[in-house]
Sequence to fold (281 residues):
Amino acid sequence: MEHVVFAASAIIVLTGALGVILAKNPVHSALMLVMTLFGIAVLFVQQEAHFLAAVQVIVYAGAIVVLFLFVIMLLGVDKVESWETGPLSGQRYVTGAIAVIAIAMAGLLTARAVDVSRGAQSGIAPLDGPDANIVAVGKALFTDYVFAFELTGVLLVVAVIGAVVLARRPKRVEVDTEVEG
Amino acid sequence: MVDDNLYLLLSAVLFTIGAAGLLIRRNPLVMFMCVELMLNAVNLTFVTFSRSLNDIGGQVIVFFVLVVAAAEVVVGLGIIVAIMRRRPGATADDVSLLRG
Fold:
């Protein structure tokens, strides 16, 4: 059963990812991105990261993709990208070849069953402790990682201020100079 | 129990698709979506190792990656909107004013 769920979500994730980079229309890319994000959320649930699965759906699919769609609508979607033109048209083929080689190498490593995920088990904050997943994440977040959490708040404030500054129209400076002159 | 290596393989493939898309596409919005794909691949790796090594720290770091991704999207889309306002329909190739 687990393998069926994994296979289905893997197909969904990879189809969505290929759709993102191959769709000519940016709106289609954004919708394919939602598909990929839902597939990843399913994989999170399967790995018992329930809190992250919920956050993945709410923050990524609910906020980030909607922001993408807003910007696409704001800028207009009538311009369809041409694949052949551009100063670096050869770059596309080289990139495609390198990507195929990289995927083939990763597949080869998996097929040879190279055990890459072997390491020391953690004794500090075990995943299978007595607490539920959300409780465990919360405890770790507000004890071991509390300074990083505070810095996250600073980062978000800086990002919000930066977005407001960037989104302002620059005409206001001209108006000011006219008033002074 | 699905083998951890399969999750890591899926994550590697997803990261490769994202990186390839970043290099292939010229629309700045789609390039941003490819960055999101790569971030998601890394998140999947973190969660896989978190389960494999029995450590909650991996999941906490995924939380931080989510926050950084949100901040990055907000600022990045602000920059794209500012560029598009000045030059409508610009692609990543058109923004080459600082090229030497």
Remarks:
- Chain B has a mean pLDDT of 88.
- Residues 92 and 98 of chain B are 13 Å apart (CA to CA).
- Chain B touches chain A through 71 residues (CB under 8 Å).
- The longest helix of chain B spans residues 57-86.
